[in-house]
Amino acid sequence: MSDCDRLPASLRAGFFWNRYGFKGRGYVPRLIGRRFAREGDYVMQTKHGAKLVIDLTNLDIYATIFNSGGEWEPHIAKACHRLLRHTDVFFDIGANAGCISLDARAALGADIRMCLFEPQPSLSNSIRKSIAANGFNNVQVFEILLGNYDGIGELYLTSHAVHASMIPREKTSDKLVLPVYRVDTLIASGRCPPPDVIKMDTEGAELQILEGMRRTLMERSPTILFEADINMNRFGYNVLDLLKLIGSTGNYDFYANLPTGKLQIYEQQPTSDILAIASRHRHRVDKDWMDGNSGR
Known about the structure:
With about 300 residues, this protein is of the alpha/beta class. It contains 11 helices and 13 strands. Helix 4 crosses helix 5. The longest helix has 14 residues, at about 120-135. The two termini are about 35 Å apart.
């Protein structure tokens, strides 16, 4: 990972506060990035050496990545690394700063094609700069929303960029008006190749997005790593609705992706992240990946 001393003192202060501050570990770095940091394209590195160009308006995200050893949500990142193979097509839906995808690209090589979906302009712009800084090819960025229709939609912003959602979670929220596409439409039009592995974290919009890729699920059977947490409540569905939809399109096994980086067979235990393994990818889940308390 990059040396923190190479970054300006203001950014280093934000990273320090994110790790050691007694409160405001997200707020203070955001404040520093938005008000006190000098404009510029500052670069840090991911765990496996990919360059990340920092979005100063969301400095707290990059502080968390830095303080986590160059990873964002390590158990999700590790699952993506274990799932992906050369020549796969990877969809990162809710790419955030792009850390998971770009780190995987650095670790696994140029043969993996990637489509990163991030509707927030400042983050998607930083991802594009990061792709250029790394000289990566076969990586596309889509500054759009995904859903179960093609048209126009709204994204409601919060103080923390990772909580932006198509249904507001705060009483007063700024909003962005953006194009909405079904994944099926993007693939049929040739804008995206069909995916082999999908990572999805969209603050509750997961069911709508899956509805918009039914044809893709039936024809391609991608493996899907998705979030299933309390955000579902705002959208009016539950985890069983997600499992039913995915299961209706093909032969899948479901696992809880644990914070430890291990898997358990999903049996409705409390978990925020679920892995739906397509039958064609069952060999990618080996015994070493399974939690010792699992029944398999």
